[in-house]
Amino acid sequence: MNIRKTMIIKETIYADGLGEPCEPIVRVAALAIIQNPFAGRFVEDLSQLFDIGGNLAEELMADAVALLDLAPVSYGKAAIVGVAGDLEHGGAVIHPKLGKPMRAAVGGGKAVIPSNAKVAALGASIDIPLGHKDEAWSFSHFDTMTVMIADAPRPDEIVLCMAVADGGRPIPRVGDGPIVD
Known about the structure:
Mean pLDDT: 95
CATH class: Alpha Beta
Distance between the termini: 50 Å
Oligomer: single chain
Number of domains: 1
Structural class: alpha+beta
Number of strands: 7
Largest sheet: 7 strands, mixed
CATH architecture: 2-Layer Sandwich
Order of helices and strands: EEHEHHEEEE
């Protein structure tokens, strides 16, 4: 695994988008910029990227969780693949082995980890989807954390993103569970 750099971003929300104060909500994203070993070529076996995702989650998730003010309640993951790579490279980093160490770090994880991946140029942003770690239908925890790194991804890199939060959206008013008409 060839890591160029890592970054931790901590965001604290004190009010909703209209300025109404709320209890503080902390979101933390852990990002790693790695060399894409398959950039520029088609490869059938992507298991090397599976292992990279799992290893990075083990290294970075505990640090992200430690920066929360309260216990983690939601999580999400994403990948930005440089333009010499393929969307499937992002999927390979975030899906097969990333979940187990993420769930271990948050102390649970009955719900699927929301995810997003895209191929993009240097400086692209990505919305890391967030969802409650144990309650898949908790609408108040459906959210995103937008992140970017100015000098990544280079064409032959992947930006792996993992996020945790200690709360849902500020002042949620949508309710929970499926609405049946």
